[in-house]
Specification:
Order of helices and strands: HEHHEEEEHEHHE
Distance between the termini: 29 Å
Mean pLDDT: 88
Number of strands: 7
Low-confidence stretches: 1-16
Radius of gyration: 16 Å
Structural class: alpha/beta
Strand content: 15-25%
Shape: globular
C-alpha cells in the first residue's frame, strides 16, 4: 500500500455529504483508523465520480482488493456464507442485492467475530435513492419510488434497531449515494 497517498486528505474537493453511516457495538472497541481512512477515500471516489453505469458489488470489491483487502473469508468449511475481504482483522462486505439476503451477511460477520477472525467490519450498501436508480436502470418501466426489493441503508438500520440486541460485532453500515 502507498500509505502516503492513502493517508492524505480524506475528503475530496467536491462537496459530498450524501453518504450515510451508522455504527453499532463500538462502546468497548476503537475502530481501526487506517482502514477508516482508506475506505473513506474509496467512498469519496465512488460518490464524487459520475459513472457510465452504477458500480456493482464486484466493482467495489475489486477497488477494496486493490488497496489491500484480501479475498473472501468463508464462515466455515461446510457453509457458503462469507464476507468479501479482510485487512488487519477489519472485515468488509459489499451488498446491494435482495433486501432479506443482506442480513445473512451480518450473520457471517457475527460468526467471524465470534471465531476471533475479525475485530470489526464494514457493511457497504446503497442509499434509497441509489437503490431506486439501480432498479430504474435495470427496469426502465418501473414505477417511481420503487427499488425492486433491493437492500438500502435504511433497511439495514431498521433491522439493526432490533438485531443489535444479539449482534455484537462492531459494525459500521455505510450507504453509498451513487449517480450515473
Amino acid at each position: 500500500l502507498n500509505l502516503e497517498i492513502l493517508t492524505g486528505k480524506v475528503r475530496s474537493n467536491t462537496k459530498r455529504d450524501s453518504m450515510e453511516q451508522k455504527q453499532y457495538n463500538f462502546e468497548e472497541y476503537s475502530e481501526d483508523e487506517l482502514s477508516k481512512i482508506i475506505l473513506h477515500r474509496i467512498f469519496d471516489e465512488l460518490e464524487t465520480k459520475r459513472h457510465d453505469k452504477l458500480p456493482s458489488n464486484s466493482t467495489i470489491v475489486a477497488m477494496l482488493r486493490s488497496v489491500g483487502w484480501e479475498k473472501k473469508v468463508r464462515v466455515g468449511d461446510h457453509c457458503n456464507h462469507s464476507i468479501d475481504g479482510l485487512l488487519e482483522k477489519v472485515g468488509v462486505c459489499v451488498y446491494m442485492g435482495h433486501s432479506q439476503a443482506a442480513f445473512v451477511k451480518i450473520l457471517a460477520m457475527q460468526s467471524l467475530y465470534e471465531d476471533d477472525l475479525i475485530n470489526e467490519c464494514y457493511l457497504i450498501t446503497q442509499t434509497e435513492k441509489t437503490a431506486e436508480l439501480r432498479h430504474k436502470l435495470v427496469n426502465p418501466s418501473a414505477r417511481s419510488g420503487t427499488n425492486g426489493n433491493r437492500i438500502t441503508f435504511t433497511d439495514l438500520i431498521n433491522g439493526m434497531s432490533y438485531y443489535h440486541r444479539f449482534i455484537t460485532v462492531p459494525i459500521t453500515i455505510i450507504g453509498l449515494d451513487l449517480t450515473v
